[in-house]
Amino acid sequence: MLNKNIEKLQFITHDTPSLKHCELIEKACRGGVKWVQLRIKDKPYDEWLEVAKKARHCSREYGATLIINDSVEIAQQVEADGVHLGKNDMSPREARKILGDHAIIGSTANTFEDIQKAVDEGADYIGLGPFRFTITKQNLSPILALEGYQNIIATCKGHSITTPLIAIGGIRVEDVREILNVGMHGIAVGTAIGFGDPTGNAQKFVDIM
Questions:
Q1: Domain range holding 106?
Q2: pLDDT (tens digit, 9 = 90+) per residue, 96-117?
Q3: pTM of the model
Q4: Does residue 1 form part of some domain?
Q5: Would you say 59 and 82 are in contact if contact means Cβ atoms under 8 Å apart?
Q6: C-alpha span between 145 and 150 (Å, rounded)
Q7: Which of 38, 48, 54, 103 is most buried as measured by Cβ atoms within 10 A of its Cβ?
């Protein structure tokens, strides 16, 4: 049975000039990361699949949860722990039919209405953002910041929604305490861990959380 525990620190891989996705995963896991989302954009399917297979092997070595961004098919083929779906991807309900009840299925949201829809469709967690501007995301949704998180969390409580909300988008180490203090379940981080010294950067986030 797959672990449905939703980690409070989630690392999102990305292309860097010097490190491949699997190298990033290994270095981040050495720093204490226990949840990795493999995010690959604009690559041929076969290349994506090969990277995902390597990511599955590496994540298992470190006991980390592996989530595949966007592709239910890739997640199924490599037996990943789950998939993270954008608003233009397959619905969580359809993904559940393919991946099964024990798969972890995440969904992207920018508004309370997005959250409500994702919850209705059975998402296990929701990436809510962006917290601030980020260069790694094209077609960025409106910035939420702390005030946006506070308002949405209050609305969720009013509707008895308890699905874990993960803050995402340009988050730095110095933001973590404030984000958690307003009631977010956790954070998802890409460049703040992946660029420079991924192991050291990961350790800083692990320590503060």
A1: 9-208
A2: 999 999 999 999 999 999 999 9
A3: 0.94
A4: no
A5: no
A6: 9
A7: 38
39, 49, 11: which is closest to 27 by C-alpha? 11
The domain total for the chain is 1
User: 3 lies in a domain?
Assistant: no
CA distance 56 to 22: 9
Q: Encode pLDDT of 190-206 as tens digits.
A: 999 999 999 999 999 99
Spatial separation of the C-alpha atoms in residues 3 and 5, rounded to whole Å:
6
End-to-end, the C-alpha distance of the chain in Å comes to: 27
Q: Residue 37 is part of a domain; what is its CATH number?
A: 3.20.20.70
Q: Are strands 82-85 and 65-69 parallel, antiparallel or unpaired?
A: parallel
Q: Which of 155, 80, 100, 92 is nearest to 123 (CA)?
A: 92
| Helix (H) / strand (E) containing 165 | strand 165-168
How far, in Å, CA of 201 to CA of 189, rounded?
10
Q: At what angle do helices 45-61 and 21-30 cross, to 10 degrees?
A: 20
